[in-house]
Design goal:
46% of the residues lie in helices and 16% in strands. By secondary structure, it is α/β, with parallel strands linked by helices. Strands 2-1-5-4-3 form a five-stranded antiparallel beta sheet. A five-stranded parallel beta sheet has the order 7-10-13-6-14. A two-stranded antiparallel sheet has the order 8-9. It binds adenosine-5'-triphosphate and magnesium ion.
Length: 467
């Protein structure tokens, strides 16, 4: 009975040792090999009949397990090589009642580890390639050298923007539509230390509010129904090391404003559905054509975020405020539209004069589109007055002489000009839908009908220029 139990136990232990995924070799106190398992054979190539019952010193000269038997010391991570097979060995004495009765060595093959390491290196290489692709996809193309204009106001703005490029502080760029806010943001990025990292433009007004959070911060797998497998990388994460350009920041929903403030203060982000925060190194440049302070007063924009963003503010003057730059800008746009190898286009003096009269609600973008239109319509290499859009020609004809400097304007003309400028600037603070128009009328202290009448009279409204 006792003998039967003993046999059963031995079988039991042998089965366990055979099923272990590491190689096992056991010697007794006389250094005789008593047991090896199949994994030991697989790793070392040594078969049971070659080794069992034989002194370890004879069959495996140099084996350190005999030392373990002598000194009772455990040995960990000893590197061995058998032909092309590499493995590491842990060795330990076997004690019974305080006596060393043998020693065991456990071998782990390194081939698998090497395979995994090679795979890891391959994937790392792939990741690096992908990062480079992302960087090249998200390149900012404009630099300060491409900003045209000699106006003193603009020069001061460029000076501040160049200083901003050297700093890591957030930047707020304000200015009417088409004044070059994105151009400045790109130039700042390109002149900064982050130039070879991504520049990620995000239009906060173009992404539905419900999607904006996961677009910006990403999400964890399974954080909501329809969440993609593997989760989503947010734009902040893609911009790591570079710059994120948050265009139309005034449209950022109130709750996300708090999250953005956290990014600016703590330099960390949290994905949707994720508990932990991850550190992030992203420079934030925000832009708006709205009056943020006004929105703060109306509790539509968080005051704390406003002050955080307001540190370095760059206000780009409207084209109306720097009409002196119009000829230089026109020349730049004319030469940009010349075919390669062809001489640059020119513009008739009268046409240029009309452009100088116009009030440019769409600023430089509108001027560029107008020049492109003129080039398209021109019969020769010179753009003439009648090649320009009708509304420009008629607006120039009706323009108060205050702008043309060829006669002293009447009081009526001065008042009209001031009225038109003020309405145009107020309209630029709001959007283009009915609600926005109502707000603009309210701000101006006139009825909606009067606003529409004046917009018609002054040819305002911005519907005739496009991006
Ligand atoms: N100073 C400048 N010199 C040359 N080109 C300019 C200048 N400013 C703006 N532009 C050009 O005008 C166009 C509009 O510029 P940009 O998109 O940067 O304006 P924006 O202020 O971001 O407009 P929006 O508020 O509508 O988004 C672009 O084609 C840009 O290259
Ligand atoms: Mg823009």
């Amino acid at each position: 009975m006792i003998q039967h139990n003993l046999n059963l136990q031995t079988e039991w232990f042998q089965a366990i040792i055979h099923s272990i995924h590491d190689g096992v070799l056991v010697i007794d106190r006389d250094e005789i090999v008593r047991l090896i398992n199949p994994e030991y054979t697989r790793i070392t190539g040594v078969k049971p009949e070659m080794i069992i019952g034989k002194p370890l010193r004879e069959v495996r000269p140099g084996a350190q397990l005999v030392e373990t038997l002598k000194d009772g010391q455990t040995r960990v991570g000893i590197y061995r090589r058998e032909g092309s097979t590499e493995y590491v060995v842990d060795m330990a004495p076997i004690h019974i009642d305080g006596q060393i009765i043998g020693a065991v060595s456990i071998c782990k093959g390194l081939t698998e580890v090497h395979k995994l390491a090679r795979e890891l290196a391959k994937n790392k290489e792939k990741l690096l390639q992908l990062e480079k692709t992302v960087d090249s996809l998200y390149r900012a193309k404009y630099s300060f050298a491409q900003i045209v204009g000699a106006d003193q106001g603009l020069k001061e703005v460029v000076h501040i923007a160049k200083k901003a490029a050297d700093s890591h502080l957030p930047v707020l760029i304000t200015g009417e539509s088409g004044t070059g806010k994105e151009l400045f943001a790109q130039a700042i990025h390109n002149a900064s230390k982050r130039a070879d990292r991504p520049f990620i433009p995000v239009n906060c007004a173009a992404i539905p509010a419900s999607l904006l959070e996961s677009e910006l911060f990403g999400y964890e797998e399974g954080s909501f129904t329809n969440a993609k497998k593997g989760g989503k990388t947010g734009l902040f994460e893609i911009a790591h090391g570079g710059t994120i350009f948050l265009d139309e920041i005034a449209e950022l929903p109130y709750d996300l404003q708090a999250k953005l403030l956290r990014v600016l203060q703590e330099r960390s982000i949290r994905k949707v559905g994720e508990v932990r925060e991850r550190e992030i190194d992203v420079r934030v440049i925000a832009a708006t054509n709205r009056d943020l302070q006004h929105l703060v007063e109306k509790n539509r924009f968080r005051e704390d975020l406003y002050y955080r963003l307001h540190v370095l503010t760059i206000r780009i003057p409207s084209l109306r405020e720097r009409r002196g730059d119009i000829p230089e800008l026109v020349t730049a746009f004319l030469s940009a539209s010349a075919d390669r190898g062809q001489p640059a286009w020119t513009m008739e003096e009268e046409a240029l004069h009309a452009l100088k009269q116009y009030h440019w609600p769409g600023n430089i973008r509108e001027l560029k589109n107008t020049v492109d239109y003129g080039v398209c319509m021109a019969e020769s290499a010179e753009v003439r007055l009648h090649d320009l859009p009708d509304y420009i020609i008629s607006a120039a004809r009706e323009a108060p002489r205050i702008l043309s400097h060829d006669a002293r304007p009447t009081l009526r003309e001065v008042v009209d000009d001031a009225e038109r400028t003020w309405i145009s600037e107020t309209l630029a603070q709001f959007g283009n839908d009915l609600e926005d128009r109502k707000k603009a009328a309210q701000t101006l202290g006139i009825s909606l009908a009067t606003l529409y009448n004046k917009m018609k009279r002054y040819n305002l409204g911005g519907s005739h220029y496009s991006k």
